[in-house]
Design brief:
CATH class of one domain: Mainly Alpha
Strand order of the largest sheet: 21-22-23-24-25-26-27-28
Largest sheet: 8 strands, antiparallel, barrel
Number of strands: 28
Helix content: 40-55%
CATH topology of one domain: Transferase(Phosphotransferase), domain 1
Structural class: alpha+beta
CATH architecture of one domain: Orthogonal Bundle
Shape: elongated
Number of helices: 37
Mean pLDDT: 83
């Protein structure tokens, strides 16, 4: 067999026994280690083979032990993290915690035990290489001070990997997986070496799966890592993990440094692959024996029954004792292309007695398997007869080749009984392992690259062939170790099978180009060999073709040309692939340095959400102006759109994505309650404004609008309906849809009404104002005008009633009340007595006339009785008449007030809104199709119908209003007359006889209780003894007249003539005497006096 045949994971099918059943390849082997299947910590710290050294760089601890504290919160580099759980404390060097920051992101925290100090220079370099998909991400590292113990601990904050480590994986019998893992591990190790670092502790436990799907893993644990010098070497120490350490690290010459280079990591890789296949437990031995096995290259390798020569060649090439002969990255790359990079010579199958006469006539004689196979292939028709008649099998038994004979029968009886062409090819392949495959055009396929080329350029032909187990391509692929790959292909449908054929081609030849669809719905393609070329082809295409990037063939091609970008794409898929279009996600994940428009970030016009908003707005304006434009995104379908995925891929625009999702929830409860139009156009502008910092300028016909003030600077009469509609939607961002609005200070509805008031006179072509103006329910102004005129008439009559009726009536009531309270009721009583006298005469005459049938005597009696009764009634009612009059007048005011004001009030409107607000809400509701929200419970003819009804109501009540007002006017006039009559009689004095004036009086001086005794003295002068009951005490004064007179007149204080008392005697309605006058005290202050006689002089 040549060196370039076994390109896959499985070896060619050969029989080592005489049994009739097919051998169970790779399923046997020594007992596995129970450490390979046990459950370990997610961090891979629990494997049986730990590093030999506990401390990397011991500090001087003085023998004292310090525990790593388990805290609820850790504050690291001024960032606070919550401790979620302790992941592992099995490691001899650290404890691992799961922590969470304030925004909910989870990390792993590694706190080193006291006395262990990692190389922070290396950690800095690893941190700078973050997001490469090959190495674990480090986000922070440093020292953390524990106050209770007063010591410092070193720490790392890194990516949280939840899928466990490779140490929990068993790969025996899974050569395809072994190859996949080997290439991924190689990519990580080589990437580290190219950055100038040697790991020195490569082992399965230090490769961690990033998630529970266990699809991707990263290299971790930098405790033994060293920086390589310019010669690619580093001085090493004793730190190592016994099982995986390269043999040159055991050589330590006293007084000389021991150097290590990148080849040491590749030896550890070989040991790791061996441990993944056999199980770590079967490799463990004492260190001396282990060193001897490594130096003699006598490690317990799998047998050829367990593993194909192709796979075994990698492990043996990696575990060569001589670093110079040991395989490195270049050799592994050759191996990945199908080359066997380490070959053990095997004995030839030629024997002296091997002789098979295939055709005596043609002298066709075979002396070995290869000659027999060549003869059979050159004579196909005869060979098929011999093969399917078991003649070939019998000949092989005759030359003592029973295993091959059994294999021939298996092919004819079990595998290809009905397809003799394929059966012949399979038999020849068994006899001639180097036999080529013959392509579609008859070309020989003998190398891995030739097979890759054949599959790639003839995929259409092989779609059906690889779907059938009885095709020659199957036989060939199985022979070169690709059995599992083509078995997977056969299980796929035709559409998927094409992609998997391409994947296999790229797997076989990593130099093949990828064909990027660029025209004709993807039928026309462009071949690319780099990611840069892919980007150029993609962005030059006639459309965005997102249908192939997540296919296995594209991913395999990407893995071939850029493992780091492939790792980034896989990381993105693991994080977001289930929620968005994976094709888009991979596209933007592998182009992190390009903007949304496909240009480098530093020159891209669409690199950030702010810039993207500007471009999208410009394109939207061009669309409205009916000019050529490009629609980058339909925001109604923003979720899972290319723009959505682009922003997601940058991993720093989650707020902008959430804001866009929020704005586009057009059917949300909040949006359904809005009283202003909120559709896709408004939502899209709101998104762009939000991304742009709160507002976004519009440019139409060369005019740029930045705020509502700019609207009035432009003549909009020439703007089309669509352009004015755009302006309406844009203006809403400054009113009810303002991203920065404070709705507590001003409600959404109020802002929406302000928007309508703004656009109504300015944007009359817009659909909203046109809808309002064209409505049959729009004549609110006419109804309001008629209503105002009707109510002006009503208010005019009401105002006149107030001025001419109600105010005079209230003044009359006040005047009567004032006179009654301040001066007593005597004048009023006298006026009422006089009025009663005349009323009695008039009514008595009327009564006498009514008794005319009784004759003169009857008339006299009747008139006298009526006179007497009326006189008596007025006499007894006189004291309360003023208050009865006041009550009657106030009742009249109330009665007619209800008639004129309350019962004819303006009944249109509501307690919540004025007519102006109702009118505004009605028109805005018509414009925005939201009347049910702005005027809930109101019909479409509201408020016009209600206004007209109210107008009719006002007009119908005018006659009654005028009638009641005239009646009120008449009553007011009567009240004024009555008040004037009372006042006229108020000042009329009643002179009583002198002898009846003398006596004792009770009364008051301006409200202060007082008594007076009035009499004539011996000299015939009027004299009065006056007592005033002040709060401070009583005062007694003797007042005397200066001269004789019939009436008391004015009396003076005996000792102080400045003090005087002036009387006006009066007679009350009950014939009692009263004195009314003025008292002037020593300070010259005048006080009104009122006295009523209680005892006469005779009494």
């Amino acid at each position: 067999m040549s060196n370039n045949r076994n390109w896959g994971q499985g070896g060619p099918q050969k029989s080592d026994t005489g049994a009739g059943t097919r051998p169970n390849w790779g399923q046997g082997g020594p007992q596995k280690s129970d450490t390979g299947a046990g459950t370990r910590s997610n961090w891979g710290q629990g494997g049986p083979q730990k590093s030999d050294t506990e401390a990397l760089n011991p500090r001087g601890s003085g023998g004292r032990h310090y525990d790593i504290p388990v805290c609820e919160v850790y504050i690291l580099n001024n960032v606070m993290y919550k401790n979620v759980r302790l992941i592992s404390e099995e490691s001899g060097e650290a404890k691992i915690f799961e922590i969470e920051d304030k925004v909910g992101t989870h990390y792993a925290l590694k706190i080193y035990r006291y006395g262990i100090k990692p190389n922070h220079a290396i950690l800095d370099k690893i941190m700078d290489l973050r997001d490469n998909g090959l190495l674990i991400n480090i986000y922070d590292h440093g020292t953390w001070h524990d106050d209770p113990q007063n010591v410092d601990f070193d720490y790392e904050v890194m990516q949280l990997c939840t899928g466990g480590s490779l140490a929990t994986t068993q790969l025996e019998g899974k050569e395809d997986k072994l190859k996949e893992f080997a290439l991924k591990m190689t990519a990580a190790i080589d990437f580290l070496h190219r950055k100038g670092i040697v790991h020195r502790d490569v082992k399965p436990a230090n490769f961690l799966f990033t998630d529970k799907n266990r699809r991707n893993f990263v290299l971790t644990d930098w405790g033994f890592a060293k920086l390589l010098d310019k010669n690619g070497r580093a001085v090493t120490d004793d730190g190592r993990t016994k099982l995986y350490t390269a043999p040159e690290l055991y050589i330590n010459i006293p007084g000389q440094d021991t150097y290590v280079d990148a080849k040491a990591d590749f030896f550890s890789l070989g040991m790791s692959l061996l441990a993944l296949w056999k199980g770590e437990g079967l490799l463990i031995a004492d260190e001396q024996k282990l060193v001897r096995q490594k130096l003699d290259e006598e490690l317990p390798y799998p047998s050829r029954k367990e593993m194909s020569e192709y796979s075994l060649s990698l492990i043996k090439a990696l575990t060569r004792n001589n670093p110079d002969k040991r395989a490195g990255y270049d050799e592994i790359k050759r191996w990945s292309n199908g080359e066997i990079i380490f070959h053990d010579p095997e004995s030839d199958n030629l024997v002296n007695d091997y002789k098979i006469v295939f055709s005596g006539e043609k002298n066709l004689i075979a002396h070995n398997h290869e000659e027999l196979g060549k003869i059979m292939w050159d004579n196909k028709d005869l060979a098929k007869k011999y093969l399917y008649n078991d003649k070939i099998a019998n000949w092989l038994e005759d030359v003592d080749r029973p295993e091959m004979a059994v294999r021939m029968k298996e092919i004819t009886e079990m595998e290809y009984p009905s397809n003799q062409d394929t059966g012949l090819y399979a038999a020849c392949m068994e006899l001639m392992p180097d036999m080529p495959f013959y392509g579609v055009k008859g070309n020989e396929v003998t190398t891995q690259k030739e097979l890759a080329h054949e599959l790639l350029y003839n995929a259409g032909t092989y779609i059906e062939s690889l779907g059938s187990y009885e095709e020659q391509i199957w036989v060939y692929c199985r022979a070169v170790g690709l059995g599992k790959e083509i078995k997977n292909l056969a299980a796929k449908g035709c559409e998927k099978r094409r992609a998997y054929i391409f994947e296999l081609a790229y797997k076989l030849d990593n130099a093949l180009p990828y064909f990027v669809p660029v025209k004709d719905n993807g039928k026309t393609t462009y071949a690319v060999k780099t990611v840069k070329a892919y980007a150029e082809a993609f962005y030059s295409a006639d459309n965005e073709y997102f249908f192939y990037q997540a296919r296995p063939d594209f991913l395999r091609w990407l893995q071939n040309i850029d493992p780091a970008l492939y790792g980034r794409a896989q990381t993105m898929l693991a994080k977001y692939g289930s929620n968005v279009n994976p094709n888009m996600l991979i596209h933007y994940a592998i182009l992190p340095d390009l903007g949304f428009d496909g240009k480098p970030l530093n020159v891209s016009a669409m690199s950030t959400p702010e810039k993207i908003a500007e471009v999208l707005t410009v394109q939207h304006c061009l669309k409205v102006e009916n000019k050529p434009y490009r629609q980058y995104v339909d925001f109604e379908k923003f979720k899972n759109s290319s723009l959505h995925v682009y922003l997601l891929s940058k991993e720093k625009y989650s707020k902008q994505i959430s804001y866009a999702d929020y704005c586009m929830e057009l059917k949300s409860v909040d949006n359904n309650r809005k009283c202003a139009p909120y559709g896709p156009e408004t939502a899209a502008l709101k998104i762009m404004a939000g991304w742009h910092g709160g507002s976004i300028p519009l440019t139409l016909h060369g005019h740029t609008f930045t705020s509502p003030k700019d609207i009035d600077k432009v003549n909009l009469s020439s703007y089309s309906k669509q352009e004015q509609n755009l302006l309406v939607h844009w203006l809403s961002l400054f009113f009810q849809e303002d991203p920065n609005a404070n709705y507590t200070a001003k409600s959404y509805t109020k802002r929406a009404l302000e928007l309508f008031e703004f656009i109504e006179p300015r944007l009359k072509k817009s659909a909203y104002i046109a809808l309002c103006n064209n409505s049959s329910f729009n004549d609110v102004d006419g109804a309001v005008s008629r209503n105002k005129r009707a109510w002006i008439k009503v208010r005019t009559v009401q105002v006149l009633s107030i001025v001419l009726c109600f105010i005079p009536m209230l003044l009359v009531c006040g005047a009567i009340g004032y006179l009654s309270v301040t001066t007593g009721s005597v004048p009023i009583e006298m006026a009422m007595k006089s009025l009663g006298h005349w009323a009695a005469i008039i009514i008595g005459v009327i009564g006498a006339i009514c008794c005319v049938d009784g004759g003169i005597i009857g008339m006299a009696i009747g008139g006298f009785v009526v006179y007497w009764l009326v006189e008596l009634l007025f006499k007894f009612l006189a004291p309360i008449v003023p208050w009865l009059v006041i009550a009657l007048l106030l009742a009249t005011v109330v009665f007619f007030g209800r008639k004129i004001f309350i019962k004819i009030g303006k009944r249109f409107g509501s307690k919540d809104f004025t007519i102006s607000e109702i009118k505004l809400r009605h028109r805005a509701g018509l414009a925005f199709s939201s009347r049910s929200i702005l005027l809930p419970g109101k019909s479409m003819d509201y408020p016009i119908h209600d206004i007209n009804e109210n107008t009719s109501y006002a007009n119908s009540h005018m006659p009654k209003l005028i009638k009641n007002s005239l009646l009120m006017l008449a009553l007011s006039a009567a009240g004024v007359f009555l008040c004037g009559w009372i006042i006229k009689n108020y000042d009329k004095d009643y002179i009583a006889p002198v002898e009846s004036v003398e006596g004792f009086y009770n009364g008051d001086v301006q409200g202060t209780p007082s008594t007076i005794t009035l009499y004539k003295n011996d000299n015939g002068l009027w004299e009065a003894e006056m007592v005033i009951n002040y709060r401070a005490g009583k005062t007694r004064q003797i007042m005397i007249a200066n001269e004789k007179s019939d009436e008391p007149g004015t009396l003076y204080h005996k000792e102080n003539p400045e003090v005087s008392l002036t009387f006006h005697p009066r007679e009350s309605a009950d014939d009692s005497k009263s004195l009314v006058g003025t008292y002037i005290n020593s300070k010259g202050n005048k006080r009104t006096v009122n006295y009523k006689q209680t005892e006469t002089a005779k009494e």
